[in-house]
Amino acid sequence: MNVKYYQEDDLLVIKYSNKPFKAAEKIGSFLVHYDRNRKPVMIEILNASKLLKETTKVLPKALLQDIMPMSPAQ
């Protein structure tokens, strides 16, 4: 799995596979790309910063520290 954030587009891309996609479907703020067998190979999250900000409000602090450790500068 590969995850990449594009700040200029506020887009978070999660690739599950390197298989080529044959179709895509927009579901709310998500674009789901499917292979020829209709299995998801990539998800794009539009307006990712807004989603992440809202999500982090409800996650337990211990979990947040595990997935987003503070940088040494903080």
Short description:
The chain is α+β, with helices and mostly antiparallel strands and 74 residues long. It has 2 helices and 5 strands.
List the helices and strands and how they pair.
Blueprint: E1 2-6, E2 11-15, E3 23-27, E4 30-34, E5 40-46, H1 48-58, H2 61-67
Antiparallel strand pairs: 1-2, 2-5, 3-4, 4-5
Task: Write a structural description.
With 74 residues, the protein is α+β, with helices and mostly antiparallel strands. It contains 2 helices and 5 strands. It has one domain. A 5-stranded antiparallel beta sheet has the order 1-2-5-4-3, with helices on one face.
Measured distance between first and last alpha carbons: 28 Å
How many domains would you count in the coordinates?
1
Uncertain runs with pLDDT below 50, 5 residues or more?
Answer: 70-74
Can you tell me the overall shape?
elongated
Total count of strands: 5
Mean pLDDT value: 83
Radius of gyration: 15 Å
> How many individual helices?
2
For the structure shown, list the relevant keywords.
74 residues; alpha+beta; 5-stranded antiparallel beta sheet; 2 helices; 24% helix; disordered C terminus
